[in-house]
Amino acid sequence: MIVRFRLNGESVVQVVKPNETLLDVLRDRIKLHSVKKGCDEGLCGTCTVILNGVPVRSCLMLAVQANDADIITVEGLAKLGTLSEIQQAFLEKNGFQCGFCTSGMMLTAKVLLDSNPKPSLDDIKDAFDGQLCRCTGYEQIIESVQRAAELRTAKK
Amino acid sequence: MEAEVRPLPRFEYFSPSSLSEALKLMKDYQGKARLLAGGTDLVIKLKKRAVIPEAVIDLNKIAALSFIKFAGGSLHIGALTRLTEIKDSPVVKEKAPALVEAISVMASTQIRNRATLAGNLCNASPAADTAPALLVLDASVKLQSADGDRIVPLAQFFMGPEQTVRKPGEIMTEIIVPEPKGSSTFIKLGRRKAFTLSVAAVAAYAQVSKGKFTEVRVAMGAVAPTPLRAEKVEKALKGKEVSEENIAKASALVKIDCCPITDVRASAEYRTEVSAVLAKRALRKVSMGEK
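^ inputs. structure came back:
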């Protein structure tokens, strides 16, 4: 089947089988390895993509379901060679160690901050309730999101 | 090196744009098709080969199945409405607070962004959190087939783990919740605060008049093969005075109504004991306004 969608602003056309997940198509056909395959059953959050403005698990979607959708991955956060406020904040606050969860964390942060520029601690914890990190203990990730909110406010 | 891929079984994929098309496909495939809504249960089952359907019928293009409306004294929620939309809906908060409480402690944000209410019910997990909430709210579900539709009270919907009265050609199209006259609540005990399955869950509903229970409903999850009403508890309280003593005595009867199993999350004994505690808390909250 032919599936067409927008990926980080660019049109994509792929021939896929109905039984391929969106995650497998992004990784194995489009070679977008920033979208991680952790548990492959919806539990870890490393395969997060933003689908029509909403963060979702790409491992639980069929690729054919992405037809006509607008998808953003971590490559869509900033132009190549520049850093978005979220990326800058994760660097400043050591929001990652091994980096496996980072794409999913940053995309979750983007959707949260786009709709809620000054999130409370509880807002952050709620938005990240399904994003697992085995390195940081989450404190640095929370600080990174708070710092990203500051950087975004300062820029305005 | 290629990443390890656990391919899904092969199936025919359909994405009908109308309910009538979907119903025709369901009829044609005679129970050999699976419906895809949020995918948060089905895609995992496909990966694990727990189900190998001939066809997957994706409902996501049927816009008419996604709605929340209050009409004719009842709240109507479309089959494709996402849990996030229901949780954030002011009218659901007002008319079915126990449902909002249940969804708030279910799964994770991203799962709720895709998962649907009808999917949670049709998947029929004994631990489906929306079920106890909807049971105390006296909800019904609409099942539609190519030959017509029927309304089934949720209390008669579940048959066993992953088994319901839904027939092979039927699609659940909406969930109907009559406007409650009393208050309702939902309390869940999980191993963690977020993103966890219930060890036990209890929902309660009460109407109180002149210090007495005029109507009382209690339902439980994760403590029997299906979500179910705690009928002995309800009977013990109906018409009785609202008091600590009556609530404590009746709540203990949960132990007769439930029949849990021991699994990785908790032992049967613990589930039984804790259900009585949750029932007591829930009943106090709906009858005495306690938090």
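The radius of gyration of chain B is 19 Å. Chain B touches chain A through 33 residues (CB under 8 Å).
thumbs up if we can close this ticket
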